[in-house]
Structure formats: C-alpha cells, structure tokens
Amino acid sequence: MEDIKEVELLLDSEKTLQKIKRMAFQIYENNFSEKKLVIAGINGEGFSLAEKIVEHLRVITDKEIFLAKIGLDKRAESQPDIQIECDEIDTFRKKTVVIVDDVLNTGRTVAYSLRPFLSIPLKKIQVAVLVDRDYLLYPIHADYVGYSLSTTLNDHVKVVLSDEKELGVYLY
Fold first, then answer.
1. Is-contact 162 134, C-beta < 8 A?
2. Total number of domains in the chain
3. What pLDDT tens digit does each residue of the chain (172 aa) get?
4. How many CB atoms lie within 10 A of CB 3?
5. Residue at 145 is within a domain
6. Residue 52 is part of which domain span?
7. What is the pTM (predicted TM-score) of this model?
C-alpha cells in the first residue's frame, strides 16, 4: 500500500495575500531610487506570484513596472531553450530585474532562469520567492521571502495562486 500523507494548509488565502503584499513593499523599499522595475515570473505559479506582486506595486508606486514571463520546464534535467516573454524588447537593459518563483527548493530552477539575463547589461538581479525551503544545491538565495519553511526532503510544498478558491500554501 502506498504511503499517503495528509495535506496540511500552511498559509490560507488571507495569509498568503498578506505575505505577497509585504514582499511587494520590500521590493519597493529596496528599489526606491529606481525609475523602472522588471518583475520576471517563472512560468506556472511563479508567474502568478509575479502578477500579484505587480498588482501591489502599481498601487503603492507610480514607477514604471514591466511584467515578464520566463518560460522553462521545471522538471527537465537541462534547459536548452529558455524563453522570456515581454512586451518591450529593450525592457531589461540597465534595469533592476526581480526574478520571481513560487518555491525555492534546490535553487536549480532559479539558476536556469538567470541564463538569458547574463548576456544583457542589467543594473542588478534580485530573487523573490513565496516559500523558501532552504535545500539549496546551487548558490542561489532569495532577496525577498514570504515564508521560510524547514521540511524533510520527502515533503512537498504546493503553492496555489492561480485558483482563487484554493489559494494558499500546502504541505504534503
């Protein structure tokens, strides 16, 4: 018989949105002198998190905020082609880019997502994650963390942001 773990709600909808709002304020405060910001979300729930952060930033500042989507396969062993979807072609040049993902576990996904930005002259790159599990295998750390969590390697953290009825952070 398969070992079935119970689902534990770590952050309900209200607490999740509160963490996201706090992250948006931190991003704003740490980039107060910037005229423009680029928020680049990794496809899936990372991009949903980026959209929510941008919504909050647009309420608290009149800075120009660009939203970009980083397309990659989180399960793939290697990443031959990483796409960046953004409306403006020159969006990233000499700007601060905040890469956003839902969960930071080993750091592999964020490390891969950096590759397309390494050939662009940026002002700086920052990382924002809703949940930091702290099992880093790559030299990646998050500048903005909504929730730090110590778990076992067998635990699974699921962030749901794209479904309003299920919105929250879950532990399996």
1. no
2. 1
3. 345 568 999 999 999 999 999 999 999 999 999 999 999 999 999 999 999 999 999 999 999 999 999 999 887 777 778 888 876 656 788 999 999 999 998 899 999 999 888 888 999 999 999 999 977 788 899 999 999 998 887 889 999 999 989 999 999 8
4. 5
5. yes
6. 13-149
7. 0.92
